[in-house]
Amino acid sequence: MRWPGGRWLLASMSSTRGISPSRSPTGVLLSCLSFSLILENGTAYFGGLIGRVANRIAGARFTLDGKAYRLIPNDGRNTLHGGHRGFSKVVWTVKEHVGGGSSPFITLYYHSFDGEQGFPGDLDVYVTYQISSPHVLSVHMNATARGKATPVNLAHHAYWNLGGHGSGSILGEKVRLFASRYTPVDAALIPTGRLAPVAGTPYDFRRPAAVGARMGGLLRRGVTGYDTNYAVDDGGEHGGLRRQLRRVAIVRDGASGRAMELWADQPGVQFYTANGLSGVREGRRGVRPVRRAVPGDAGVPRRREPPQLPVADRQAGAGVQP
Questions:
Q1: Tens digit of pLDDT for each residue in 221-269?
Q2: Nearest one of 273, 62, 80, 302 to 192, comparing CA atoms
Q3: Which CATH architecture describes the domain 2-320?
């Protein structure tokens, strides 16, 4: 089955480098200096392409079509971002690459075999990164299940700091999220199975607000930062069957004048302020990261059974585009 989803684009950005009013470029993505450091910092998922299932699967198990499957746990008793050897830890094949012209792009391919990390069925995955203008970066994901039904929920895991390298924390950057509901989680960050309104909570970014403006409210709840899945407004019900692109988030950095818009066709967006990066050895130019934001678009995360939230289960022979 093809997975019918998975497009998002960033506007008001120039590839992975922001352009300030002074036209001075700087890196706005957190990265590592070498491939070996990426492997050492594997749990940070720097710029990772996450799958088969982004976020957590409770108890490293699920039931699909009446059959129980056990996965490999890598986050306590749970499975996070596809397991120990998720899609961010494998070697992808370059299927097509156009480096010049007005719309350079690269298409990557990965074949996930039946039983990989415990997931059922073969899965063919294609991801295309494209720069369609000096200020637009788009990512298009497509997955096709072979032989068996399987859960699929791909995501892009980039850490953004629009202030640029060396600018410090992102807590002063202003964020607007086009989402009036979020998925509450338990102490293990597993969704409870319900959607809750953001109104009156520290999770309300329906109007632009600094990332750190409501951090005190989180701390009073015993939470050190945002690692929150939001249900995008007008995202469709039961898996987000409406496939049109819609605006998901806007981020602005006042000091540099840079802004970023996120458009996507998925039902959920994960907002993460890098609360778990304290053990990272070194980032770009050897500087430790300080609270980077990760607005990554994806489906609604898995949680306990029985399901009350939409799940990205795909039947064999059909495909999905995240």
A1: 888 889 899 999 985 544 444 568 888 999 999 888 888 888 888 888 9
A2: 302
A3: Distorted Sandwich (2.70)
pTM of the predicted model as reported, rounded to 2 decimal places: 0.82
Domain residue extents for the chain: 2-320
Element (H, E) at 39: helix 35-40
Structure token pair of residue 117: 């990390």
**Contact predicate 56/189, CB 8 Å:** yes
d(CA 148, CA 289): 41
Distances in Å between the Cα of 266 and the Cα atoms of 67, 193, 243, 245 are 27, 18, 7, 8
Report yes or no: 141 and 154 within 8 Å, Cβ to Cβ.
yes
For residue 39, the Cα-to-chain-centroid distance in whole angstroms is 19
- pLDDT tens across 16-61, in order? 334 444 456 778 887 776 777 766 666 678 788 899 999 999 999 9
Task: Identify the band that residue 279 occupies on the pLDDT scale cut at 50, 70 and 90.
Answer: low
Name residue, tokens 């068996």.
148
Secondary structure (DSSP) of 20-42: -TT--EEE-B---SSHHHHHHTG
Question: Are the CB atoms for 8 and 298 separated by under 8 Å?
Answer: no
> Other CB atoms closer than 10 Å to residue 228's CB: what's the count?
23
